[in-house]
């Protein structure tokens, strides 16, 4: 079974339990802080994925790092996941939890890549465009990639709108190669 499917199988009941216990926003914040720790500490992330470190040791480390900093439900979820030997998927589970949370709240995850940093007006324009496409309130993430030269690449779910200069150049190159 793929890591994504396994992550969804764990993230879904965590979301349902959090909602049932009325701690959904607290668990969401816990998952975000967990992902931040994973991003900022490569060693922590590698420890979770290491086959050499025992599951009990990983559970103990998670408990020491997060006790008193996260909701009790989140700690119990971490404990169950490590007892099931799935701690290597904790990052995936946290990401899936956030995707499910956003879907439940009616938020659309939108990514826009530009060659320069977005200013407030550009951000507003992309949010409006994303809202028109999805009909949902967008959660906009901006990325800077100077290789696209100009324009933008907008990703909404599994759809991508490429209006970048590099994308247009690739399209022209493809057209010219077909006409040879």
Overview of this protein structure:
The chain has 180 residues and is of the alpha+beta class. The protein has 2 domains: 3-103, Orthogonal Bundle (Peroxidase, domain 1); 107-178, Glutaredoxin (3-Layer(aba) Sandwich). Helices cover 62% and strands 16% of the residues. The chain is built from 8 helices and 4 strands; from the N terminus they run H-H-H-H-H-H-E-H-E-E-E-H. It has a 4-stranded mixed β-sheet, sandwiched between helices. Strand 3 and strand 4 (159-164) form a beta hairpin. Helix 4 (55-66) runs antiparallel to helix 5 (72-83). The longest helix has 18 residues, at 3-20.
Strand content: 15-25%
- Quick one: CATH class of the largest domain? Mainly Alpha
The outline comes out as: elongated
Mean pLDDT: 90
Helicity, in percent?
A: 55-70%
Order of helices and strands: HHHHHHEHEEEH
CATH superfamily of the largest domain: N-terminal domain of the delta subunit of the F1F0-ATP synthase
> What structural class do you assign from the helix and strand content?
alpha+beta
The number of helical runs is: 8
Q: What's the structural domain tally?
A: 2
Strand order of the largest sheet: 2-1-3-4
- The CATH topology of the largest domain turns out to be Peroxidase, domain 1
Total strand count, please? 4
Radius of gyration (CA) equals 20 Å
Biggest β-sheet strands, sense, barrel: 4 strands, mixed
The end-to-end span amounts to: 45 Å
Structural key phrases:
180 residues, alpha+beta, Peroxidase, domain 1, Glutaredoxin, 2 domains, 4-stranded mixed beta sheet, 8 helices, 62% helix, elongated
